[in-house]
Write a structure and sequence with these properties.
The protein is 65% helix and 2% strand. The protein has 245 residues and is an all-alpha fold. It folds into 2 domains: 2-69, SP0561-like (Orthogonal Bundle); 76-243, no CATH class. A two-stranded antiparallel sheet has the order 1-2. A hairpin with a 2-residue loop joins strand 1 and strand 2.
Length: 245
């Protein structure tokens, strides 16, 4: 059976599948399989510590009805400079807008309910760590990496390495992927500590809202990282190779 233009096997990577059909990310979410930072792993690898078998997962992916996502964008076909603008205007802006808001909510909840629910104190600390990482990460992407990729797109015959301080583009991309993994792991821990973002019975409105916003933030982060790790970065590496050949 096909997912987009590929036949799904145990050796197909998670990233390949989601890149061709973003709707299939729902199947991976169901089984708690990381499709953004873990996009380079094959189905054989991700099923090793899961209750679902490779054959069962492939069957679910093949029968997944993506009809409700018929209007979803095919990011894999976009030009890289256009994709970069989308990432900045959609995901970077979302992060910038929501970091202060969620910080306010989770700080308040930790102060008021932290003695009774000690996990809130840890969640607050972890979110602050993620917020600091993401703020610095976005600046590096917008000021260094993304302009360089746009230069590659618009001037493919230029000797790009002569215009940078980092040599090959693989160097900053590896740094960005490492930072993605760090923040992704932070949110995995937050999700566990918050019982999958389920506030306890009798929780106040702010408590519920804080968890709701954390879950929304993680969902946006997953797509954000997927677009970069599985589409933008690999294509940028290939583009640079072509410009220097």
């Amino acid at each position: 059976m096909n997912a987009g233009n590929i036949v799904i096997t145990g050796d197909t990577t998670v990233g390949e599948i989601v890149t061709l059909n973003l709707g299939k990310a729902d199947v991976f979410k169901k089984h708690h399989i990381d499709f953004c930072c873990g996009g380079k792993k094959t189905l054989n690898q991700v099923c090793k510590n899961k209750t679902v078998t490779v054959d069962e997962l492939i069957a679910e992916l093949n029968i997944y009805n993506s009809g409700t996502n018929s209007n979803a964008q095919n990011f894999n076909e976009w030009k890289l400079d256009f994709l970069i603008d989308y990432i900045i205007n959609t995901h970077h802006q979302y992060v910038k807008k929501n970091l202060p808001l969620i910080t306010e909510y989770i700080n308040k909840v930790a102060k008021v309910h932290g003695e009774e629910h000690i996990e809130l104190v840890t969640i607050n600390e972890l979110f602050m760590q993620a917020a600091n990482e993401l703020s610095a990460h976005i600046i590096k992407e917008e000021n260094v990496l993304f302009p360089y990729i746009k230069e590659l797109v618009n001037s493919p015959t230029t000797n790009q390495n002569a215009t940078t301080s980092f040599g090959t583009i693989k160097t900053p991309i590896q740094m960005m992927e490492d930072e993605h993994e760090l923040v992704g792991n932070i949110f995995k821990t937050i999700k566990e500590l918050s019982n999958d973002y389920k506030a306890p019975v009798g929780a106040c409105t702010t408590y519920k809202l804080a968890y709701h916003k954390l879950e929304e933030f993680e969902n946006d982060l997953h797509q954000h990282i997927h677009l970069e790790n599985n589409i933008l970065f690999p294509k940028s590496i290939e583009l640079e190779k072509g410009s220097n050949s």
